[in-house]
Amino acid sequence: MNSALPLLAGPHATVPLDVLLSLAFFAVFPLVLVMCTSFVRIVVVLSLVRSAIGASALPPNTVLTGLALVLTMLVMAPTMQSIQRVALAPLRAGSITQGVAIERAVVPLRAFMLRQTHLDDIALFTRAARLPRVAPTLTPLQILVPAFVVGELRSAFAIGFALYLPFVAIDLAVAATLMGLGMMMLSPPVVSLPIKLLLFVMVDGWALLCGGVLTSFR
Description:
- The chain has nine helices and no strands.
- 78% of the residues lie in helices and 0% in strands.
């Protein structure tokens, strides 16, 4: 008992706190990755494209999630470099504390989210939280994060709608052709799926899709 007392008092008292803060950071890191980065828009667009093609299980969820993570790292690279420069490097050097490092790390992440967020969404959640209106750069995170996620979902659905139209046109053309030939017993998806796959491969659809999603971020 007496040997454990020095860990709870004196200069060693910060060691358990540092461990606790580190564990808390790793616990919330997946949530930060999903809610505060480009991951939401990318994974929703990829899922909508898979649904539009009609192959509900291909590519598998693991592949789509992995591709979304890679594209997220590309989009977030400038932000991560800023966080590394202003927060992580000084923290490793011991010139700042963990609390100061977290405050500094939030600044580049906030700037990224503000570039993607509509002012109307910020105003909506500000009214919902019954908080006073402030300048967009001073928006608290409890308002900025849901406004950012809503904007990302809106952008993802808009991109998905544009991507859905060619595949819907193929489905309608195949269904009309089968009806005209009197082949009512043949399911249209059986014929339209290989046509959509062939079209998607011929136009290099995955490369175009990834490039378009990457360039949609400001």
